[in-house]
# Entry
Amino acid sequence: MASFGADDAGMNITAAPTGLPAAGAEMTFGRHGRRTGMTQPSTPTRPAAISAQGLVREFNGLTAVDHLDLDVGRGEIYGFLGPNGAGKSTTVRVLCTLLSPTAGRAVVAGYDVATQPGKVRLRIGVALQEAALDPKQTGIELLRLQGRLYGLSRSEIDGRLADLGQLIDIGDALGRPIKTYSGGMKRRLDLAAALVHNPEVLFLDEPTSGLDPVSRARMWEEVRRLNRELDMTIFLTTQYLEEADELADRVGIINDGRLVAQGTPDGLKRSIGNDLIVARLDASAARAREAVESLPGVLSVEAKGDEVVVTAIDGAEAIGAVAVALNTVAAVRHLTLRTPTLDDVFLELTGNHIQPNGRGPGEAGTDETTGRETVEVGR
Amino acid sequence: MTALDLNVGAEIGARIGTEIGTVRAKPAPAPRDVVSIAGRALRGVPRELETVIPPIFIALFFFVVNIGTLQSITERHIKGFDIKAFMLPTAILIGVTGVSRAGSLVLDIQDGYFDRLLLTPVRRLAILMGHMVADVAVACLLTVPILLLALALGVGIESGPIGVVAFIAMAGLWSLAFAGFGYAIALKTGNPAAVNSSFLLFFPFLFMTSSYVPRGQLTGWLNGIAAWNPVTYVLEGQRSLVTHGWQWADLGKALLAISVVGLLSMSLCLAALRGRTRRG
# Structure
């Protein structure tokens, strides 16, 4: 997937530079050599449920979404990852017809969002960033009204309420005013409202923002279940790395309104490099290189002071042999396996972390300073 | 997980897979949209009694106090004058003017629920009309306790039972016409304080007219302003139903005045709705 040439945005390169992107990946480089884009695979394997070409949305001259190209396949969970203000919510509002595109074109469930918004609305469900609920209504009143506005008959609404009660697990609380609900219950009701009419495509704008870890895990399971049981296409925006990693079949990374990378979570992480095994020894690591570099799967070894950094194709596979080999040199005091995260991908592409501390609430197992997943062995 | 859990899970999954698959959204007929939105607005009324009790209280208060203050002086100096019948329309207009769900619409905008409505296939105009239908119903209901008090005080309705219905309907239409300003402000600003202050618009119209004495008793500049004040004709139309029976000229002028105010407020309102729902 190589192409050479220069344009205003940067230079497209086919030959893989350092970092060895996975086969089929595309990368673009900015004027200063920083990678500005990476996609792999760039198109879904199933017919597109959401498609955008050159989508632009401006507000008073400020560009919130900048020539966005997207293809989300039917039945796919697509994670749209980016920091606050990157353009995620604006993209969702355009795709779900609340805003018109300034330029470009977007098709959702087979209909153009600009020229056929009514047909799009019949086929999509949306849970916006803040649960959009009327606190004075009861849950059941809200869901019934939603059903009526989508043209469902009374019996259809009754059936859907029964289904959603089980699916979203709101239970008896449905009869209570929404203002008495907890944050998690509001989110689930909001999700239920988005599902009343059985949409083909579901947009979830930061669905777990502000939720406690338990509610968050529950929401993830519900998203998975919707996708698994109903084959629903789900477009999910998030600023949480772990969320995109856990849920999405493919991830698009957006920064300053531009899609800077797209691919499977594993593929994106693999594309920026290999696993790192970092060891601290009780003595000098000078002799570590010769002990480790010939091990299968080890790409390189660097030793400095008492620290050894081993680059491996598959760190999990190599770490045992590395530990044993290093122990022949000196006692291993501390051993860390670092696997690249989506934050590393974002860092590689933009020079910034997605989140200031590289983690979302409840993201256990993520190194606070580096944003990397770690497995630590110490003694 | 037990075998029973698995069976139940499979059963639910199968049911979801079949039943959910048969439900498909479709545009609802426009009247159904309006009724749905109005139903929600009306359900909200008993939950927000603070929006309807003060108008009733204020109307009853002014009705009683004005009668107590002016009865002696007016009935002594104006032959055949019935202050209770005269004050009834004034009290009604004080009660029903500014009664609207515009404040709730602002909260919908702030809570994001307005966006949820816009995400459905509901007609944008139906959102507004649904609220307004509810407003008319509430305004008509608000007139009942004031009318009952007037009847209890001995006021007779010369136009009869149908006149009572026409009287209530006229109050409802006036309420609707004026409510348009509140909705225009709500949709334009999304600010509850601005909506609440929209009632202040009514004050000059209420006092620079024949609210407290017949127009013939007004003099100078006030009489001139009253002649151009639409509230004057609404009051006179309602008074005609109470004191004179079916006076078609007065009723016609009242309906014309309501129409002019309604046309202005609804134009502002629709422009604000277009602005609020504009996607560009």
